[in-house]
Amino acid sequence: MSREDAPAAARRPREVARPRSGRPAAWDRLEQFTPDPARLERARIVTHAKEDPAHVPFDILRTRLMKMLERNGWTSVAITSPTKACGKTLIACNLALSFARQKAHRTVLADMDLKRPMLGEVLGLRTERSVGDWLSGEASVTETFRCVGDSLAVGVNRQPFRNSAELIQDPVAAEAIAAMKDELRPDVVIYDLPPVLASDDALSFAQHVDAVLLIASAGQTKLNELAESERLIRDMGTLGGVILNRYDLKSENYYEYDYVY
């Protein structure tokens, strides 16, 4: 796809359905978690309900992403950025909750920013076992993930993990990811990765995903940072697209996006 192919934000996307028959039993064993709507609003998570028109760009992104995954036979996508504070965690969370409104799909959202985890703080979710524990084989899927609504499983970290690169590269991590996919049988898995240029964690994890979405922040991300991040991702995996994130906190329109796939 090209920049010119991106749909206008005002046009609401048609719902894309790709249901799988039968809900795996593991979903019923996940502890339920209901985010506080006021907390989500303060964090600018706008896709948990459709009252806020700012959810529309995320629904468009959801539909375009699902079409890309379907076209290539993919199920997993990682979201990262060149540097910190580009909005990657908010985009990952909004995108996951947008998918969760489609009851026919099963979606998993996992915080893989092990050195600087933010997803639990955004959602107000604290668990005894972290994603880092699950990756190391010390916690099961049902101990780690929580069910939000009927079709979204979320895994967060309650503390940073200093040895994150070694943890990600350990074969045990690959086994944990495979077990999660086998137990939950998700249609879409979204991983919130650390920034590409902050450490080698994001590049190390690229082997576990089908595609990587790169978030750039207008007015913040430098062209050389973006170019270097694109090059590194392409060397290690598949660059699924670049999203330009532009937002003005002083206006009511927090989100404006441009897509390049």
TrEMBL record:
Pfam family, one: CbiA
Region (Disordered): 1-26
Biased composition (Basic and acidic residues): 1-18
InterPro entries, sorted: Bact_polysacc_biosynth/exp, CobQ/CobB/MinD/ParA_Nub-bd_dom, P-loop_NTPase, Wzc-like_C
Record-level Gene Ontology MF annotations: protein tyrosine kinase activity
A GO cellular component entry from the record: plasma membrane
Domain CobQ/CobB/MinD/ParA nucleotide binding intervals: 78-251
Membrane spanning stretches: none
Signal peptide: none
Name recorded for this polypeptide: Chromosome partitioning ATPase, Mrp family, contains Fe-S cluster
Origin species: Oceanicella actignis
